Amino acid sequence: MLLCLVGAPAVADDVPPPGASSCAVCHAACGPVPAAPPCLRNRTPDQIAEALDAYRTGTRTGTVMPYLAKGFSREEIRALAEHLGQAAPR
Ligand code: HEC
């Protein structure tokens, strides 16, 4: 479960961007139980960035994400998506 949150920061690029730790509060559950906040580990950075953009602009609805997403700029969303998403989902 912790693997969702902590990738060993082997390279400087891997330092979590601002705000990333707050996402883990709700998105940490990557177990077999389909939790309401979806596991982000099997999303690609593009999928995460698209979802956050859609929440931010109001084209996608949700309970909490629209409010959260509005707090980030596009650059911050991109950085979060790169950090949280896995390039090669299974
Ligand atoms: C308060 C709990 C909470 C926090 C904190 C939170 N999320 Fe979410 N997230 C949710 C829930 C619940 C959903 C399902 C949509 C909804 O109801 O808003 C969701 C959905 C998503 C999705 C869409 C996944 C998909 O493809 O269906 C993405 C991407 C996402 N969150 C990213 C983030 C990021 C990035 C952060 C940190 C900035 C974050 N979330 C913080 C609860 C949370």
How are the SSEs ordered, and which strands pair?
Elements (H helix, E strand, L loop, with lengths): L19 H8 L17 H13 L7 H5 L4 H11 L6
Helix pairs in contact: 2-4
The protein binds heme C (HEC).
Distinctive features:
single chain, 90 residues, mainly alpha, Cytochrome Bc1 Complex, Chain D, domain 2, 4 helices, 41% helix, globular, disordered N terminus, binds heme C
Describe the structure.
It contains 4 helices and no strands. With 90 residues, it is an all-alpha fold. The protein has a single domain (16-84), classed as Orthogonal Bundle (Cytochrome Bc1 Complex, Chain D, domain 2). Helix 2 packs antiparallel against helix 4 (74-84). Bound molecules: heme C.
| CATH level-four homologous superfamily name | Cytochrome c-like domain
Rounded to an integer, what's the Rg over CA atoms? 13 Å
In CATH, the architecture is Orthogonal Bundle
Mean pLDDT figure: 79
Bound molecules: heme C
Q: What is the chain-wise order of helices and strands?
A: HHHH
Low-confidence stretches: 2-11
Summarize the structure.
With 90 residues, this protein is mainly α.
